[in-house]
Amino acid sequence: MVSATPGTYELNRSKKYIVDLIIRPTGLVDPEVVIHPINGQIQDLIQEIQKNVEKKQRTLVTTLTKKMSEDLAAYLKEKGFKVEYLHSEIDTLTRIEILKNLRLGKFDVLVGINLLREGLDLPEVSLVAVLDADKEGFLRSEPTLIQICGRAARNIDGRVIFYADTVTGSMQRALREMNRRRDKQLEYNKKNNIKPKSIIKAVHELYEFRNLSKEESINHIFAEEQLNYKITPKNIGGIIKEIELQMREAADNLDFESAAVLRERMLELKNMKSCKHSKH
Predict the structure, then answer these.
(1) What is the DSSP string of 39-107?
(2) If we measure between CA atoms, which residue out of 251, 257, 270 comes closest to residue 3?
């Protein structure tokens, strides 16, 4: 198993076999994290976003509720920023299109709740703002915070702002782990005379998939005969395994956009399978 942020279960099960893969060949270090007070967080955020816009860099803002995301996106638009809001009701291909447009600079700020789940690889993002970072829970747990901060780790100017009035246990552990990784990378860079540089990644063209359904897009991307099987109770397990293999292969090749499409399909089929079992 390879994981950037293994959970407690994974760590306990495999602790004696764990190997740290921390060093990045780009020399990039984990982004610095600063803590700003919640009082006045929106006005402070606006100032920070403006700095990024002037540098032609992108910003991710993560909130705790759908309403807050919607209201914040609307407010930022009123203030003249080019903003999009990413939420769970947007289909996979539209989400991919939104992410592509963020990278292309068609808008500057992406607001959402659980942005980490998108498998985002966005080198143009140099600022991640975490609102209500001190509200303990899944969305503000140690692994989640580390993953969120990692969205700014592809850019040499990467930085993270936690808006919080207290430092929770999750925040403390996340900061400790990121500082540990940061120190190791800095030491390696100094020892090997490495000058950090931002990741340069092409923006994939998605026009060919724009008018396709989710199922058609998977077949188009991979052109695999086995994905065209008629789904039956007998073969659904095999199809799920095949799609999972394709998803892992795409992820191994750093094709996270295709992997995200396949993951959605795999989860749909797993849900379909469990529903069929529950009926019997």
Answers:
(1) TTHHHHHHHHHHHHHHTT-EEEEE-SSHHHHHHHHHHHHHTT--EEEE-TTS-HHHHHHHHHHHHHTS-
(2) 251
Q: Which residues contact 193 (CB under 8 A, 6 or more apart)?
A: none
pLDDT in tens, 69-87: 999 999 999 999 999 998 8
Of the chain, the end-to-end C-alpha distance in Å amounts to 34
Among residues 108, 177, 109, 187, which one has the least CA distance to residue 141?
A: 177
Closest Cα to residue 57, out of 112, 108, 111, 120? 108
Lookup result for tokens 């980490």: 116
Segment (H or E) for 194: none
The count of other CB atoms within 10 Å of the CB of residue 162 is: 25
pLDDT tens profile 172-211: 999 999 999 999 999 989 999 988 888 777 665 444 444 4
Q: What's the pTM value of the predicted model, to 2 decimals?
A: 0.69
219, two tokens: 């077949």
Vertex 142 angle, CA 140 and 146, to 5°: 95
Q: Which of 150, 71, 78 is nearest to 113 (CA)?
A: 71
Bridge partners of residue 33, in order along the sequence: 160
One-character DSSP codes across 249-264:
HHHHTT-HHHHHHHHH
d(CA 183, CA 191): 12
Rg of the chain taking only CA atoms, in angstroms:
20
Q: Where in the chain is the domain with CATH 3.40.50.300?
A: 22-191
CATH number of the domain at 22-191, please? 3.40.50.300
